Hints:
The chain is α+β, with helices and mostly antiparallel strands. It is 33% helix and 24% strand. It contains nine helices and ten strands. The strands form two sheets. Strands 2, 4, 5, 6, 7, 8, 9 and 10 form an eight-stranded antiparallel β-sheet that branches. Strands 1-3 form a two-stranded antiparallel sheet. The longest helix is centred in the last third of the chain and has 22 residues, at 310-331.
Amino acid sequence: MTVAPIEAKVVSEVTLGVDDDIEVIDAEVIEEEDWGDNHPNFIESNTSAITLEELTTKNVIPTFSDNTLTLSHPNFIGAVAKMAEQVFGELTPVEIRVSHPIIGRVPSAQHKKANELLDEEKTVFYQRMAWCCRVKNITREINGQTVHLVIGGVRAYSEDKLYNRQSPQKFHVFVGWRVRVCSNLMLTCDGNSGTIECMTEADIMQKSLELFTAFNPHKEDTLRLLENLHSTPISETQFCNIVGRLRLLQNLPVTEQKLHPSFTIGDQAVNTMVKNYVSDPNFGKKEGETYTCWNLMQNANEAVKQSAYIDRFIDRNQQATDFAIGIQKAINGEDTDGYDWFLN
């Protein structure tokens, strides 16, 4: 069961854009609706949904080799959420996705067959976990789509050296925007903490607070940057060139790959982008409508969330956003980072 976020109804509108061609709508929340059973997930891949209650009550907490406790997934979520509420305001319930379960059993059941185990005799924890929630009172509309400010994080025990004595543990925290219709995250470098190493919950809170307070004054600027992608069309020929170059990039020698902007997606993700171009009901190529860099970003984000493992999800999501912005600059003749290579 996924705890679904909720949609805000707009009662007042304020134009925030500086450019006359770019309007970002500010929304005041007065009522909340459930998404229902068709709520899309913010990441797919090989993940499954879990509730915070189940994560808290039914999962064991791994330890280091000296039996020192690690920071649990629920404590990580709680520490980041507390700082987010302090900076941005009230949050919705979290959506949590997990993968790579480590399954065990209690000692008293060591001689039982697997099909004979009772629920209370089974143990489990998940090596990888990603979570996301949105800020209730910060909702905008860009390009006809409702977007929410979202907070989240990623944790992978595989990054921690649990076979050693207690040492700093690695976490990832993000803040950015999410499109309601598909739950695609739009993350930029200023909203991505990168890898933070922490020993205590206080460390997590401190580093999360630093990220959120730095991002907060620029959240509208980020939104206008994303909105502006809608103003740059991409022809079918240009899209085909981009797809071909993405396939070529991943097969070039490493030394040559470093000469071009990085976007580390495989054939499966590229195929998904092509499929989305043709058939995605929200951001695909439609008769009589222009396909733009905004559509390209959403198609790339959709491909990333279906193919990336949890521990690589945030960085690849940011790459998808950076890629669309880079392509826009190349089309407009403003490229300084080598993105015009994808159009040739």
